[in-house]
Amino acid sequence: MLFKVAWRNIWRNTTRSLVVIASVAAGLLAGMFLIAFFQGFVKQDVNNAVEAQLAHIQIHNPAFGDDKDVNDTITNASAIVEKLRKDVNVKSVSGRAITMGMISSSSTASGVEIHGVNPGDEKNISSISQNVVEGVYFDGKKNEIVIGKKLADKLGVKLHNKIVLTFQSKSGDLTAGSFRIAGIFRSRNSAFDEMTVFTNFDDVAQLLGTGNGIHEIAILLKDGQKVDTLAAGYKSQYPKLLVQTWGEIEPEMGLLTGLMDQMMYIIMGIILLALMFGIINTMLMAVLERQREFGMLMAIGMNKPRVFIMVMLESIMLTCVGIPIGILLTIGIVDYFAKYGINMSAFSKALSQFGVGNYVYPELHSSMFLSVTIMTAITAILSAIYPAYKALQFKPAVAIHQI
Amino acid sequence: MKKLLPFFLAAVMVLTLSFTGEEPTAKEIVTKAENNIHGLSSQIEMTIQIIRPTWTRSMTVKTWTKGEDYSISIVTAPAKDAGTVFLKRVKEIWNWVPSIERVVKLPPSMMAQSWMGTDFTNDDLVKASSRIDDYTHKLLGDTTIANRKCWKIEMTPLPNAAVIWGKVNIWIDQKDYLELRLEFYDEDNKLVNILQSSDIKTMGGRTMPSKMEMIPAEKKGQETIIIYNSATFDQKIDDDFFTTQNMKKIK
Amino acid sequence: MWRSRRRTLITISSIFFAVIFAILMRVMMVGVFDRMISDTVSMSCGYIQIHHTGYWDNRSIDSTMEESPKLTSLLNNEKQIISWVPRLETFALASSGEQTKGIMLMGIEPAKEDSVSKLSKKIIAGKYLADSDKGIMLAEGLATYLKLKVNDTVILLGQGYEGSMAAGKYPIKGIARLPIPDMNKAMAWLPMKSSRDFSSTGARYTSISIMIQDRDKVDEVKQSIIKQEPGYEVMTWQEMLPELDQTFQAKMGQNVIMSGILYMVIAFGIFGTILMMLNERMHEFGILIAIGMKKGILARVVVMEMILMSVVGTLLGMIGAFPIVLYFRLHPIHMGGSWAQVAAKFNFQPIIQPSMDLHHFIIQGYAVLSIAIVLSLYAIFKIHKIKAIEAINS
Q1: Cβ B100–C169 below 8 Å, yes or no?
Q2: What global pTM score does this model have?
């Protein structure tokens, strides 16, 4: 019986009801979008680094470590690479020959880390190939090299200039080779640009004397979220090798993103609070408006608990209507942006230098969906308590005479 | 008489050939000049002057070499640096500093660093490339430097050679096959370095320039000058003179 | 307006809370950014750095600046500067006999350095340096690479001032862990006197790093230094660490979107209140119009009322936010969980602390006020639509 009354009450004042419904829907949308945006943002940050250098998982010979001795190759690397290529979870895999050395131009020299890669494979794993600002990412000629813009500037060289790479070969001798600059790249990390150079696997291997020796296997997964479980799987599959996730290789990556995660809870809290107060105020105003109505109800015998429940029911129903609307809106808006992305460079001049990685794609996971919905619902209902309580305060006689 | 004719003709041919003295090829000239420098063994005392826009420094160094692959040098002045030893074996360099009593091997990444603050790099000492084998040589003609007639030869690095230069011009004295001047150009044909040798004297029984200057073309007021004070050549030195153990003992 | 106190109070309070929330959110975000920048900058280049002209591009030990009493007193007297440290930085080779690595050697004045970069708190083994120490401090990653521990000896070789050779051996007094991996693998510190002896520089520095009070005043302070002591190269952190600046900009972009979301929620709340208020007063309006008040004038009066309430609400909100922000400033929020553990490992403070910059209070107040005013214009629309008789009967 109360339900029917409550329901009819709602629709008697459409404006008021619509406002509350809209507030609830907006609150839901706000909460969801916020989280989706955050998730997308963090993912973008991570992706930028993962795709540029780290990849999801890396495998090394445990002795390789920090001194990167050229002799510490991975045993059976080619077999492992082929096996990984066929792995359903793996999007792409690349085997790299890595050594420390020196790059010289006619004016200067600089210490660098030389990555000998298979361009076809590497292209699928590293976004560097898309960050080439001059020239191309390998043209198929012999002794090509791709270097970072910062390094090119430091060495005073341009596209197609010659440079010499000097490093220690497998036998400990100093070896050198001249290479031509096929492309110049620019990533978000200028320290990386200055320290890392890319050559063709075969060209470096020839000089190193390591044949097919691979120092690093990089794996890009189809689903980045599964990185920990899959890494564990590989660790047990290859117990003698060092299998690491990007989080283990660069724990500092997680630092800043973790900070933003924590911030998210606080922001969420503030938004829900704002929502709550907004609804309280609206409802209070509504209750105030309905003084005469409440006074009458109580005069004709409706007792206080029932009035309270009635008002609460109204709020609950309004919330129930608002939530589905909010969900629909959220799906629509998040989907739209998930497809087209939010162009962050519109907000920041500095970012517009980089073509790739400027778009944030909000994304929502079903678990988040549920929790946000529940939180919003609870907020809405809690907001109704105070106004409902206030409704009881009216003295019937006074109320009826209110204008 | 008829039997003698072929001999006679042959003799005439041989004589004419040796008189006309067929002009050597550019490559032969460079080969002879390079081999000139890298004699069997040597002991040299030199003064090295480092000139910069705001300061100048002088060092004296005693060096022993054996062929291309082994050399050991000790700094004898100024006092602060005296006793520092450099050892080169083939392509590796070690450093001994008396004040710290340690031998340190230079990693490849240090090769870029200048040697003792001069305009020469550690890499220059190690000489990863060969002027004979890594270049093609073209004779450009004759010129004169300091009253000596020279060949001017243009050296272009082979495509796969580990040489950073676009081209190197070399002036070789025709009488003694001395390398009097080298000009190093980058790929855009910009002059980057000049290596100039002068003050030709007889030292240790050989004719050689006693002053060498490395002048960076772009940096004003900057150069390194090496002056050879005395030299002995072709004396017998054992291989184990050039070891890390010996670094601590030589004076 | 005071006729219905309840109504008025409700309206004012909706603005009041809106302003507080807007301020809180902005202040928290800015506080986090400030921290981020200050933590990074204090470890490396400072907010502002002074060098010999040309040093930044060509980091040679020859490009040093002399100790200058004039500069010292300028820095000590500048109000915005809370601390400054001189440093002598040079590239050197560190060797343990087995391993050799190129490193960045920093000559520091230990006490001063600590006040800026809190280096002593990052020690994980051994002890912090003292002015007259003969020992050296290494970064954790470097010590591991060289396979050295506290009390072992490390050799340093390098190029000194004016071409002289720099060489020395030092006992390891302490090992520090730095949050930035590249720095953690390649840094070492010596007391200023030792490093000057190593490089033979005499009384010179390669840089002076400065920490200032207000991040926003960086350019001002830079210009002030240049004006008073020309002849040096003075750079801001944005010029020295352009990537940190970029990251920061990206986070600012994030901030804009989140503020947008908050404003949207606030707008709904305020709008709801306004709508309800109008609804409630329909009867009153109806009568006023029936007795002859022109709609235009009524509209203007109502809007004025609302603006007045908004202004009061905004002012109260700004004042009310103050104690809340102050509380969090003094008792920052500590974060827990696995993130906090990682942060602690790198000595990154796992706290969220709001900024106290009153600027933000004013801007947010202004923003909410504008939203409220724009929304209250709806009243004009509503009033003009009134049909008197319907209104009276509502």
Answers
A1: yes
A2: 0.74
